[in-house]
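Blinded run. Sample ID left blank on purpose so nobody reads anything into the name before looking at the predicted structure. Input follows.
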Amino acid sequence: MTHTNPLLVIEDLHTSVEGNEILRGVDLTVRQGELHALMGPNGSGKSTLAKVIAGHPAYEVTGGSISYMGEDLLSLEVDERARRGVFMAFQYPSDIPGVTIAQFLRQSVVARTGRDIAVFDFYDDLQKAMKLLEVDEKFAERFVNDGFSGGEKKRNEILQMAMMKPELAVLDETDSGLDIDALKIVARGVNTLCAELDKMGALIITHYQRILNYITPDVVHVMVRGRIVESGDRTLAEKLEAEGYELFRDEEAAAGAAS
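Blinded prediction complete.
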């Protein structure tokens, strides 16, 4: 269910790493309840955009702005962004041996809400989330990502998203390295949460159209050489699958030469 309120508004965003410009004027608006897919070839700046939204310190914003729920997102520290409901699912989640998923999630929820949560209340919420996402209850007693398969790591991130109940979810190549069964599980989890948290906006970053066989985006964007060069509905993703990115590369190169 799409709402009319802008959630994330990115305007003319420029970003550099060690003096190398990566994002060269990105414009993107995600409204409450919308699911956007950002596609593009390797090195186009997709993951850079995700890290800038999350607040990674290695990425220097040299121009433009990001507004989140009407607030200057760039002025907020990483932890402040998370507390305000910005959730980031990483392409390569870290292992945390010795810390169970349940322990990690409880501390994350406490940090997100700013209040302590009774153990019984937390486990009640956790069991509901695991049931909603069809996750075995024993999963919560495993150490975070320790010895996990790619699919288990991504399922853990979706479980985190369910418990954190974010306003904005950014999923950076969450389909990377997944077989078809794991991909379906992750996609089902995303679809379930988008339905449950109907005001949540989501930005799914991916190379390939295949995850969009199971998740239907409201808007698809194509990023090439640090700019969004075209936006459309899911048929744009199908066009990319059939024709590749060369057409957009040529158009961007021509535009750059003209300017």
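Unblinding after everyone has recorded impressions. The chain has a mean pLDDT of 88.
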